[in-house]
Specification:
This protein is an alpha+beta fold and 154 residues long. 36% of the residues lie in helices and 16% in strands. The longest helix is centred in the first third of the chain and has 19 residues. 21% of the residues are buried.
C-alpha cells in the first residue's frame, strides 16, 4: 500500500490479485479496442484505439472502499484530430462498465508523441500492404481517355 495516498496497487497483492489485475486490464484493453477510429474506417482499414496505439496507458489501482479504479490515458495521432472528446467520452462509458462497482477515469494527453510504430505490428503491416496496393493503380481522371498516351491527342 502506498502510505502517502492510501491507495493499494494490485501489484501489492498476492498472485491471485495479480491474476485479477491482469484480467481486468485485459477486459479494459478489449473494451477500448472496440472503439473504432472513424479515419481508419474511412480508409477501409477499421481499427480500435488499442490497435492504433491511441491508448497510452491503463493503470489499475484498488481502493479498499470503492473497488477497482481503472485509469486510462488516451491520445490522438496528431494535433488536428477532433476525435479526442468523442474518444474520451466513449472510453469513459465502456471502462465504467468494465470496472463494475469500481470507478473509471479517462484522461486525454495532448502531447503530440504518437508515431506509426505505436500501432499494433500486424495492423501496421496490413496498412502498409493496403497503401502499397492502392498506389499501384491510379484510375484515369474523369473524362480522360485511358487509351491516349501522354502528349498524344485523341
Amino acid at each position: 500500500m502506498n502510505q502517502a495516498s492510501g491507495v493499494r496497487h494490485m501489484s501489492d497483492e498476492p498472485s491471485a490479485a495479480s491474476s485479477e489485475h491482469g484480467a481486468l486490464v485485459a477486459r479494459a484493453r478489449a473494451a477500448l479496442d472496440e472503439i473504432i477510429d472513424p479515419c481508419s474506417s474511412a480508409a477501409g482499414l477499421p481499427a480500435g484505439l488499442v490497435t492504433l496505439g491511441l491508448v497510452k496507458a491503463i493503470d489499475l489501482q484498488h481502493d479498499s472502499v470503492d473497488g477497482p479504479l481503472l485509469v486510462a490515458t488516451l491520445r490522438v495521432t496528431g494535433p488536428g484530430c477532433v476525435m479526442a472528446p468523442v474518444f474520451v467520452e466513449e472510453a469513459q462509458r465502456r471502462l465504467a462498465a468494465v470496472a463494475g462497482r469500481g470507478k473509471a477515469i479517462v484522461r486525454f494527453d495532448a502531447t503530440p508523441d504518437w508515431e506509426q510504430s505505436d500501432m499494433d505490428p500486424a495492423y501496421r503491416e496490413r496498412r502498409r500492404l493496403a497503401l502499397a496496393q492502392a498506389s499501384r493503380f491510379v484510375p484515369p481522371a474523369p473524362g480522360a481517355n485511358p487509351q491516349v498516351k501522354p502528349g498524344e491527342t485523341a
